Fold TetR/AcrR family transcriptional regulator.
Amino acid sequence: MSSEGVEPGTVRPGGRTARVRESVLRAAGDALVEHGFDGLDLADVARRAGVGKTTVYRRWSTTTGLVADLLDDMAEQSSPRADTGSLIEDLRANAQLVVKTLTDPRQGPLFTSVIAAATCDPRTAESLHRFYAIRVKEWAGCVIAALERGELPAGTDPDEVIRAVSAPLYYRLLASGAPLDAAAADLAAEAAAAAARAGVYVR
């Protein structure tokens, strides 16, 4: 397939170039954690990754292209969903994973930087939306399985249930400053499960 017309940073390299991509994306993540999106510089990323500047500029072209590829990689590398046989336990696992990610010394600041960038950059916003769409679809399988077991009312929207788990956790991170801990994860999961059982998410 020709890559003509494909936006820089969206082509998936293979073979030896995969190692270059891995190094550059790791360096980009480190730079975002340290300096935020406004401080992201392709030349600095190249230096951190130990690769030539021309390689980075040719493949990603812009900082937004680099962040878009970083988000795509994060979606690809994310942990698979839980499959415990119980809706509430699956949702707890989802909430615990969100809390673990957002409180991680590296992942937490990285997500905060990317979310901040997405508020003012359309391409970063598009990439962030794609990242969460992938993760929601992955975890929606928990709700689909619960529907098949008869745990939830017919017509329940699986995506909405998963969004309801993570939304209050991101609110704590970005707005309220309330603790992000195991108790917060349990509360988010239990609230989403209770609402789902009550038919709130029936469409």
User: Anything to note?
Assistant: The two ends are 40 Å apart (CA to CA). The chain has a mean pLDDT of 89.
